[in-house]
Amino acid sequence: MPGFNGTDRTAMMLPSYIDSITFSNNFGQNQWTSGTSDLRALNDPSSGSNPRNIGSIYSFGWAVLCGSCFPTMNVDITTKAVTGTYKIALYLVDWDSGGRSESIDVFDLSTLKRLARTEVIKSFVGGVYVVYKVDRSVRIRVDHLRGTNIVVSGAFFDR
Asked: What b/e sequence results for 84-108 when a residue is b if at least 16 CB atoms lie within 10 Å of its CB, and e otherwise?
């Protein structure tokens, strides 16, 4: 989870079938808050206890700076030899109420063929999970539609 343990510190525990997660360049990492009881924040994955922390991978606010720039974030998830399907859940939360809207697309990482329909997330101040079922390495593309910038606060896996 990006920024979970403080600015520029990520809590990452990958399942055995995931080789790596890579975020595109030109994005930062922050911790919005730590030690909160706000349920939009995430529990510590090592202890599962409160208090909660929340951070994000974010774009540098180019849309605000240049008006017509619409940044895109790519999240490449590379698998090891996968048999069967697995689920990817992205957690999005507009923690600071920046009026954000984002669209999400999923592609086969090697061919870049679209694997799922575009999801448009219009309001996520309360936090939202976007879940995909896949059977290979994928690229998840997050596009800025409205608001301050792009944010992604977590990526989770399940079989």
From this structure: eebebebbbbbbeeeebebebbbbe
